[in-house]
Amino acid sequence: MSKLYRLALLILLLASGTARAALTIEITQGVEGALPIAVVPFGWSGATATAPENIAAIITADLNRSGRFESLPDHDLIAHPVEGAQVQFKNWRMVNVDDLVIGKVTGNADGTFTVQFELYDVIRGKQLTGSSFPTSREDLRRVAHHISDLVYEQLTGEPGAFNTQIAYVTTSGTGKNKSYTLLVADSDGYNPQTILTSNQPLMSPSWSPDARQIAYVSFEKKLAEIYIQEVATGSRRKLAAFKGINGAPAWSPNGGQLALTLSRDGNPEIYIMDASSGALRRLTSSSAIDTEPAWTPDGRSIIFTSDRGGSAQLYRVPVGGGRAERLTFEGKYNAGADISPDGRKIAMVHATNGNYRIAVLDLESGLMRVLTDGPLDESPSFSPNGSMIIYATRAGNREVLSAVSVDGRFRQRLSLQAGNVREPVWSPYGK
Amino acid sequence: MKFNLSRVMMVLLVAVMAGCSSTGDKQVDSASIEDKGTSADGSVVSSGAAGSSSFGDYSLDDPNSPLAQRVIYFEYDSAEITMDGQDLLVHHAGFLVANPTVHMTLEGHTDERGSREYNIALGDRRALSVQRVLELNGVAPEQMTVVSYGEEKPAAEGNSEAAWRLNRRVELLY
After folding, report:
1. What does the mean pLDDT of chain B come to?
2. What's the CATH class of domain A165-426?
3. Is 0.80 surpassed by the pTM of this model?
4. CA distance, residue B77 to nearest chain A CA (Å)
5. Domain coordinates of chain A in residue numbers?
């Protein structure tokens, strides 16, 4: 099996005309021992010469991007079956693939589409799963990501996170001509949609747990304000515009509350706000900086950054209030926590020898592990299946995004063709 | 853009000594020239000190007035105001006390290192410590508004100490 390691594979080409500001994904460090799989180009029957989306290519890119799979290149495919009866398992064994994905797309007379897929275990010569999805033109890519999720879960035992989105902030221009844009794109960088554009800073996007709304900080009035915006409709409302800092919004796991940083009482403190009534409760009280709240998945604690001990470190406090317990002890700077979906790990910005890197603290063992090697890495965000962390980093003088597997073995870079991209936040699965 | 600080300082120093009017908010007064150690020229420093005796009389439009210097710089992860910063703020406080209808926005900023929301808090702390010094010198709280942009609005682009030191600042905006 050829090695993926160090292979710079340009997976995402700007194939469609709608790819304005699309993120390009480049795998910068692969994993030895990835599962060998073949994804055969899907069959097509419809009025046009080719299917409107290349479903197999989307699935191939997804699986490779996870770091857990290595797909057989198209030119090595020995046959092009589109249904089970056409599969010769013996031949696929000879090219050393363990699993095989086949399928077909049908363009129906009423303009809808049907996507069928089947997953086979080549070694045992049997079907593992398969399904048929009626869908629309707009949702073809989504169906492809859903198939990737099903294949990933069947073969790894963990849910996939392909059918999800990423919110991020881009900037272009400099000085007075600088513009800031908040966008949402599919997890493969496709389908970028602008949420808001401003000539003043936009920052700290945070997904609601149903993935339908995003809270963010906008300086459009030359003051910090927090807004909540519906992703689908673009309608928004102002959540907080108190005197001083209005920052770091973080939705509670049940969506009923947000944790915020406000300095309305003179000093940055964490507050809990009821999302519908706006009722406020102050959670922290110290003369130090308290900010960057993150909810534990059980909704019972808030992990936040404070310099009450003399430098920025992470602390945990019960949501109902009480004594804050310090969680980080390695290094002089640990900030910007993001908690894994299972609540067991905390990703953070960790400074070591003047370099700012992404580290993960295992809460059970207390072990801290530095995952990245940049000088200025920040804004870590777990994928909803907990397997990857996306974060902001630098490539030369440009701001780009990277993703790293939680074990640190697999990396990819996501960059714009031009301009800077920062503050990635991976969406939850939604409902 | 690469910013050679010491070269800028030298140019501005020459401009100040020659009595030329230098443009824009990058104007550097005698105090911060002394601070950066590019020159310990006694005459430049003493001219600043002499000016402080009548601080209420300065014009905001005079590029040679201490009031033309409207940026206070900070050390890494610090909101402590240096002696030079204190001296400069005394001039601005004098002006604000003498002109109680004038309003000032204190914009706190940081360098790009570390997490963004922590930097918002740090920029806020810097702006608040400037506000405190101004208040101690008699400025009415209503004359001042504080806003922190953290690392979001750097004065100098680039990831070098030269850029960072220009970005760790509070801007005094009349």
Report:
1. 75
2. mainly beta
3. yes
4. 9
5. 34-156, 165-426
